[in-house]
User: Fold Lipoprotein-anchoring transpeptidase ErfK/SrfK from Allocatelliglobosispora scoriae.
Amino acid sequence: MRAEHRTIRRAGALALGALFLLTGCGPTDNVAAPQEPVAQTSSAPATSTAAIQPSPSAKPTPTKAAAGTGGGGAASSPCPLGSKLRDVETALAKIGTYGAIVADGKLSAGDCATIKAFQKRMGISPANGKAGETTAAVAKRIAATDPATCKAGNATMACVDLTHQTFYIMSGGKVVLGPTVTRTGMKGFATTAGTYGINDRSTKHWSRPYKVWLPYWQHFNDGMGLHETTTYIHNTGIGSHGCVNLLHNDAVKAYSLLGYGSKVRLYGRRIGT
Assistant:
């Protein structure tokens, strides 16, 4: 266990009396949620009718299709157009749980609504429907996650795909939470793969080394546990000090679904660790 990460286990956890735990968790930064740049749309300057007068035989110019009929851009959708639209469409079509979407590279009003729903669920800010880098990367990770890999059987088990940085809970052979995003240990603090049991939990746990509260804490191994993230989970190039960081709603739901003795299975390896 890590010597620098000592915390006191809640009294009565396993009826073994007071016991010291080592926590390897805490924030790696305090950066506010970055904003995905909103594409600036421009329209041609209005032509003065005084400058150009149509001839009596001129015919009206056909207009673009109405919103929701495809064609891309602001004319067919209230969402800004992102550079990763086709990637996002393809991934969300494969996931299939956030609404109808067609992988055609054309941003319709329906696509916009589906992308927004996904962004809100995954805590992506701003959730404006723009198919940017963050949305594409997260969608691809979720789409690539295969719950069968966890091999949970009928048990209630928390599953952490370290490779794709995703989290889900299985029960009775079905996914009951997720797959959703997570953030695990960064380089030098890699989260350990394996199967462990939850042996300490608290809705508000204090991390001594990092001086921060860890909401919905569920410890499973060597100072590592599940808990709500204390920073924007989509900041790239960083990670936890070994813990499995979760969005608020996912941490709350995981706390309600799991308990003492519940299994946590971690598989794969985070790239770069």
